[in-house]
Specification:
The protein is of the alpha/beta class and 234 residues long. It is 35% helix and 26% strand. It is globular.
């Protein structure tokens, strides 16, 4: 489904991503773990078209995203839940969700999908007329996820969904990610909470200073002494 080949991303003279290759297959949850500054968010931004790679290719099915304008990428079936949520603070919860469906052509299914998001996130239904900026951090994360779902993506990119949330809310968010995946959406997850990410991932990659240094199933990396020492507090 998603294939990254020899991706390089530069900020001026600094090479932030140094020729990485990986793939996400249809129906999987794949996670990228790594320390701050490893290049996880840069990789996500390159995939979604927010950064132009210096070299390499990114394929969604057979479409080369490096040759596709960023505004066209959601229409191909890829949606991103950005780091820091980035909800439209002055718009209501419902208006944020409507904006998520902006790129869709099948408007006849819009109401059913809106209802589905409210079933998945009952708190958003209770607050549908509230400005998004008045929501708690956890509710804003749910809104960012719901907004991405309204685009009817084949694959969702989630960047640090647990950031700043209480342990109880983190568990809830990860259960919802699993539910979204079981309902047919492929997930690429970037997450500093390596323990939680590996617990739900089919496969995982470790990113260190712009290079992939380890890969395997979620269970294999969770059991790795090297990963435990570096990322799991073992």
């Amino acid at each position: 489904m998603l294939r990254i080949e020899n991706l390089k991303v530069r900020y001026g003279m600094i090479e932030a991503i140094k020729g990485i290759s990986f793939e996400v297959n249809d129906g999987e949850i794949v996670t990228l773990i790594g320390a701050n500054g490893a290049g996880k968010t840069t990789t996500m931004h390159a995939i979604s078209g927010l950064l132009k790679p210096a070299e390499g290719h990114i394929y969604l099915d057979d479409v080369d995203l490096t040759k596709t304008p960023a505004y066209k990428i959601p229409g191909l079936g890829l949606a991103q839940v950005p780091e820091g949520r980035r909800v439209f603070a002055e718009q209501t919860v419902e208006e944020n969700l409507i904006l998520g469906a902006y790129s869709r052509k099948d408007k006849e299914n819009f109401q059913a999908d809106l209802n589905h998001v409210f079933e998945l996130f009952p708190r958003l239904l209770e607050r549908r007329k509230q400005p998004a900026g008045t929501l708690s951090g956890g509710e804003q994360q749910m809104l960012a996820m719901g907004r991405a779902l309204m685009a009817k993506p084949k694959i969702m990119l989630m960047d640090e969904p647990s950031m700043g949330l209480s342990p109880l809310l983190v568990k809830e968010i990860f259960h919802i990610i699993e539910d979204i995946n079981k309902q047919g959406t492929t997930v690429l997850l970037v997450e500093q909470n390596a323990k939680m990410a590996l617990s739900i991932a089919d496969r995982a990659y470790v990113l260190e200073t712009g290079k992939i240094t380890m890969q395997g199933t979620g269970a294999e990396l969770a059991a790795s002494e090297q990963v435990k020492k570096a990322y799991l507090g073992g």
